[in-house]
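Let's do one together. I've listed all components of the complex below, 1001 residues spread over two lines.
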Amino acid sequence: MSAVLKAVNLVKIYSGGALPVPAVRGVDLEVEEGEFVAVMGPSGSGKSTLVHMLGGLDTRTSGEIWLDGKRVDTLSESAWALLRREKVGFVFQFFNLVANMTVADNVELPALLAGISPKEARERRESLLAALNLGDRADAAPAQLSGGEQQRVALARALANKPSVLLADEPTGNLDSRNTRDVLRLLGEVHKQGQTIVMVTHDARVASLADRLVSLFDGQIVDDGRITRRRTGTAGEVIDLR
Amino acid sequence: MSTGMSTVRAGRRWIAADLRARKGQAVLTVLLVAGIVAALIAAVTLLEDGTNPWRSLFAQTNGAHVWLYTKDRPPDEVGAIDGVTSVAGPYRSAPVTVALGGKKEPAGLRALPSQAPQVARPVVTEGRWLDASQLDGAVVERSFATALRLRPGSSFTVIALSGERHTLYVRGIADSADQGFYPEWTPGLAWVLPPMLDRIEPMLGRSEWVTGLRLSDQEAAQIVSQRVVVMLEDQLQRVYTWREVRAAMELDNRLLGTLLALFGVVGMVAAALALANAAGGRVLGQLRDLATLKSMGFTGGQVTLLLLAEHGALALLGIALGAVTGWAGTVAVLGTTSVAPMPVLAIVGGTALVVLAAVGLPAWRGGRTPPIPDVPAAPPRGHLSRLARLALLVRLPPALVLGTRDAFTRRLPAFLTAFGLAVPMMMITIGLGVWSTLDNFLSHPEQVGQHASLYVRPGKLDSAQAARIAARDPGVRAVYPGTDVNALAPGEARSVRVRALGSTTTPYPFPVVEGRMFARPGEALAGQGLLDLLGVRIGDRVRLTVGGSPLIVRIVGRAVEPDLDGEVLSVGLDSLAAKDAVPPEYYALALRPGADPGEVRARLLAASGESLDVQRVVNPADRLSVIRVVIVALIVVLALIGLANLLTASALGLRDHAFDLAVLKAMGLTPRQVMATLVTGTGLLVVVGVAVGAAAGVSMVTGLIDLQGHTSGVGAGIGRTPSALTMTLAVLVAVGASLAVALIPARRAARAQVPVTSR
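Okay, and this is what the predicted structure of the assembly comes out as:
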């Protein structure tokens, strides 16, 4: 299998303040097609910065990023934006639905951006929302939805263009346990259909859903290992090691 | 697939959703811009109408472009001249004298049928048109009626050349573009029915025939009038075109243009502020959504374009609406096709550019939002500002200290608050400055070159007699002999005006604003326009030619010069050659304080047995009362914009503040103290904004008016700042109103239950 996403010696140093603050210090990471990678670490370990850089939301200080076999870290902000339309889906902790738009518009927007006809975008949205059990909420405003529902809409939006990689930044960080379970079940389902996923979390139970667990501490990878399926003990041990 | 098309589709979806979510605000923005544009168009048209009334009168009366006066009825061929579309008349016209209340005024009585004609149709503004059942009825031209104080129903006596007297009754008062206004244009004009004219003046030899020609192209008037001269030869008494009529009606004063341009600028800044506020507040409120859009694949440039399209479309809609209503409104008030197209186009184009620029800044700011959503607002620096430390040192209550700290720790809302108030305050100050400049015209006309309020020409008397009569009048303080001559400047095809007035020993008090008054023969004052035209400076020597003889003068000073684009050279009468200076052409009369020019004029006319020609000087401010209405309206609009800016800024500030407020409450501040904290924070910024705005306005207003004056040839030196009392009042009212407005969100915030964990 080939690497969908690859980071080589990736470094991010924030130099806005009086002292430069290194957030990511030389990360090497390869994500295979169809893989589900969980990135774990305590607050401030650089895991959000890492995933933002991988999706082009933040610029790297040095190092390389490769997406679908092409080097992308040298792209301009605009070129990144165009690339994201088709290759990257994002899910954030606070859902980040566009507040003014209906659920339907939120899900159709990325499809329209990718150049799909309005008719086809609607059909895609209908099937996605139906799959996520939100078919009847299409005309609702995001504010009328519960947190779990909003995150499911955000997931539908991220998946609208069948991206090469789905980047999820603490997707369950703001949800109660029942909604967490729902969202995780959905992530598991899309993963089974072959979707490559990189998910940042600090919750071990959430991380245990993934195939592979990358632990980050002070901006460096301290552990990278496969999770053996059906043996949750392994994940527990990794957490205990922290 | 094209990325352009797909972005447009997605962008349209987003704009539609955003507009739907804030219908009320969008409608308000459109209406505000529309209101400003409509007000500007109405103001410009009204002012234009006041300074150049000919156009609308000509349009209303379907006027004639060329007027010819002949001894006998002119042949029909004049109507067949190329370019003539229709003919008014010929009408028989007889010279008479109107005697009314001891005054005698020259008038031309013109015979028109009871069916008002299609071309050059007098438009009755009061009363009715002539009626065959009332033969002794007359309709009087409006400016003539105003001068004679005639109203419908009143009667007056006309004296024919034979000396016979007839009494006529005013049936109506009508507007006409056939000739200029009385008394600048004499004789006055009144219409009677043909049988009545035959009764008043039965002798055909003592009357003349008046014919108006309406042309397909007004530019052909000169050619047509030459054809008329050639065709009629000595039949023709005189001929004039619409240009002479327009020139006679025009108020030749560049000050109006100056003020008008300044007003346009104020209005456009108001529109720009209204939009910058609406768009800026909106963009700052939705930065998070914009970040989300970017994370989905909108580029920064596309987000900027999106915002520009949304807010720009609202602005353009407002401008279109305003242009249509302003145009329709003035057409309804002033009559059809009287709106000057150029100023309206300038307003529409100028406002469009200005508001798009105003929208551009927030749009650019929105496009620069980093694509990472959820970056929490940077917490304010923990340390107290110097001002807050000072507040603590002088033992102010804690709420005030915290408020003082808040005022300056959050830079963006602080800037928005202060700036959003400073700009309207500045514009209000400029508006007040225009007001006081107008007041100054009225109270000190001598400072704009109108020291004399009456001009006397000898008329039938000789010059010395006229000077004696004028000097004898108790209302006259000083009599300055004067002569206007045209002089050729070296290298200039056209001539400039040389005004010789007063002498170097008793000079006319020209308003000298630079250099000094002339003190010797051979010294002169120049207007700004003349300095620019000849490319000379004060201290330079110029050589002109007056009627063949040279006139060499040294320019020793610059005077405020409202006439003839400032292209006037003022000298003492003793600087001119005797052949040009003796006898003086006219006398300029400076009156004693409190003397009424109208009464002095009547006395002079009576003392000279109606032989003198006495003219009143028109003060530009007299025709400018409409500008005061516009100033008040603009100040109200600007005040509303300032308060709206303040509300937006404090709402933004409070949104970032919600967490702090919860902490303050948790620390034990009462709601009242929280409110005091917020109002102190806003209040300080309000005071800063208002003070900066007022100071900037005061320092700019004279400069702006003078700059306008300079470019229009009048020259710097007419601008006046508002009085200290006016400014103090304005600042106090502005601060008070702002604090009252700041109280609204502060009260709400102080009472709201804010959870400590906002996220």
